[in-house]
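Q: Predict the bound structure with magnesium ion.
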Amino acid sequence: MSAPDYAIEVEKLEKVYAASGKMPEKRALNAIDIKIPRGSIFGLLGPNGAGKSTFINILAGLVTKTGGKAKIWDMDIDQHPRASRAAIGVVNQEITMDPFFTPEEALELQAGFYGVPKSERRTLEILEAVGLADKRDAYVRQLSGGMKRRLMIAKALVHNPPVLILDEPTAGVDVELRRSLWQYVRRLHDEGTTIILTTHYLEEAEELCDEIAIINHGEVIACEPTSQLLKRLDQRLLIITPREPVDAIPDELKDLDIRIRQNGDLEISYRNTETGIGRLLEKVRATGISVADLATDQPNLEDVFVAMTTEAA
Ligand code: ADP
Ligand code: MG
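A: Predicted complex:
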C-alpha cells in the first residue's frame, strides 16, 4: 500500500449522543473537517468536553458517528472497517488492563487479537522500547500507573500501525514519566510513525506537535502549524476611531501592521507580548491624530486558551 498524503481525513464528521434518562441529546462533534498530514505529530487541543475523545473513539470504532465521513490511511471507515483500523494503534484515556496477565502475555494476546503471526511478533522489542523489559513477567496489578500507561502504548503498537493515537496520554502521569514517554513518542515519530495526541494542556501541544487543531464545543476553531498558532494566540487588534477622518496612513506609522477600515477607523494588529497599547497610542497621537474612541479585540482563540489554562491550574 503506498503511503497517502494524509494519515487521517474527516469530513463533516458529526456525533450526536442520543438523549438518555435525564441527559438531553448532546452534539459532541458538529460536522468537523480535519486533515492530519502523514508523518506529523498532530495535537488535538481543547478543554474538557470539547469532543476530543469522541473524535478518537469514532476512528477507533468505539463510537458510531451520526454523520460525515472518516478515512484512515486513505481507507473509508465504513467501507473498510477492519483494514482502516489496522492502520491505527489507539491508546485510550482511561487505563484499562487485565490485572492477571503479565506484560508479555498481554502483548501476545493483543498480537493474537490482531492476527499477527507468531514469526512476526515483536513482543520483547516493544517491551524494551517502552522500558518494561525487566517487568515482562510481573503481574500487571503490580505495575505503577506510569508503567501501565506504557504497557497500553506497547499494546497499541503490536500490529505495527503507521499511525499511533494517544488520548490524553499524560493524564495522571508524573513529570519524569512524561519526559520518557515523550522521548519514546518522538523516537517513533522519527522512525516514521504519524502521531496524534489529544491534550488540554497548551504547553504539551506546543512542545510536541508540529500542527495543532483547537477544538471547542465540537467545533474546530483553528488548525495550523504550531508556530503560526502561537503567533495568533498572541495577536491583538487595537481599533481607533479618529476625531477627524484620516485619508492615508502617516509615514511614522508605516512600520506597524495598520490599515484604515471602511468606516474610517484605524485597525492596528499587534503582538501582546511585544507591544503595549500605551506605546501604540503614543505613536498614533504623535502623528497628530486625535483619538475619539478606542477598543481592543482578540481572536476567539483566546477564550479557549483562557478556559484551558484556568482548568489546568
Ligand atoms: P473531551 O474528550 O474533549 O473531554 P468528549 O468527547 O469526551 O470530550 O465529550 C464531548 C461531549 O460529549 C461532552 O459534553 C460529553 O459529556 C459528551 N459525551 C461523551 N460521551 C458521551 C456518551 N457516551 N453519552 C452522552 N454524552 C457523551
Ligand atoms: Mg477526552
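A: Residues 175-190 form the longest helix (16 residues).
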